[in-house]
Design goal:
Elements: E1 3-7, H1 11-23, E2 27-30, H2 37-44, E3 48-52, H3 60-68, E4 75-80, H4 84-93, E5 97-101, H5 105-121, E6 129-132, E7 135-138, E8 143-146, E9 149-152, H6 155-166, E10 171-172, H7 174-182, H8 190-206, E11 213-216, E12 220-223
Parallel strand pairs: 1-2, 1-3, 3-4, 4-5
Antiparallel strand pairs: 6-7, 7-8, 8-9, 10-12, 11-12
Helix pairs in contact: 1-5, 2-3, 6-8
């Protein structure tokens, strides 16, 4: 049984989400101490986190940044309908996806299922290590290494880079990427993909791999080697 950690302080929303996920055999764990959110998540060894933005003590952005210092566990943000810029900020902070309130519980459940399916089953290659332009990407740990530098990618970032490496110097459409990541992506805002690409570029730059992901306007993205 997969475990989901729910960081939501509204008791009605919390119970509705818990009930919906329980029907699909997900174990839902809730916060006990609002000063110890990250510690509780790490201790619970969960498979996914649902994170609200407006919370007691610290907001969801703070807890996501703190969690990302220790773990790359998938995170779905829950934001208000009038907070779309914050939803994009959530992705930039380290979240994998988001839903806006009020939301249909079936949509939230589909997002949870898609991300957990991707984490547990998706594997575009049988190789545990992919080589690219002198760097290596571990498909098991999502660690990108170049020279003596290593950076940890989120599962979403890792899958995007895997797909681009497997199609080196070729244009990969946004539609293809979203289908691979979210099994069809029916509920995915394109901003989620764009922000993940931006975050991936920033991380690649930290290991001296800048300007490798090229945006082909109106077509998609292309991964190039240094002299391409």
């Amino acid at each position: 049984m997969s475990k989901v950690f729910l960081v939501e302080d509204d008791p009605t929303i919390r119970e509705n989400i818990r009930t919906a996920l329980n029907k699909w055999q997900y174990e839902v764990i809730i916060v006990q101490d609002w000063n110890q959110v990250v510690s509780e998540i790490m201790a619970a060894r969960v498979d996914l986190v649902l994170m609200d933005i407006t919370l007691p003590v610290f907001d969801g952005f703070y807890w996501t940044e703190e969690l990302r210092k220790q773990s790359q566990i998938p995170i779905i943000f829950i934001s208000s309908a009038d907070m779309n810029p914050n939803a994009v900020r959530a992705i930039a902070t380290g979240a994998d996806d988001y839903v806006t309130k009020p939301f249909v519980l079936d949509v939230l459940t589909s997002k949870v299922q898609a991300i957990l399916r991707r984490v547990n089953q998706y594997n575009p290659t049988d190789n545990s290590v992919l080589d690219f332009d002198g760097s290596t990407l571990s498909t098991l740990t999502n660690e990108l290494s170049y020279g003596e530098a290593t950076v940890k990618l989120t599962p979403t970032e890792g899958y995007i880079l895997q797909l681009l490496i497997l199609n080196l110097n070729q244009i990969v459409s946004k539609t293809k990427i979203m289908r691979m990541l979210w099994q069809g992506g029916a509920f995915i805002d394109e901003d989620v993909l764009n922000t993940n690409i931006s975050r991936l570029r920033s991380k690649m730059k930290t290991v001296d791999l800048p300007d490798r992901i090229i945006t082909e306007r109106g077509q998609g993205y292309r991964l190039v080697e240094n002299d391409s």
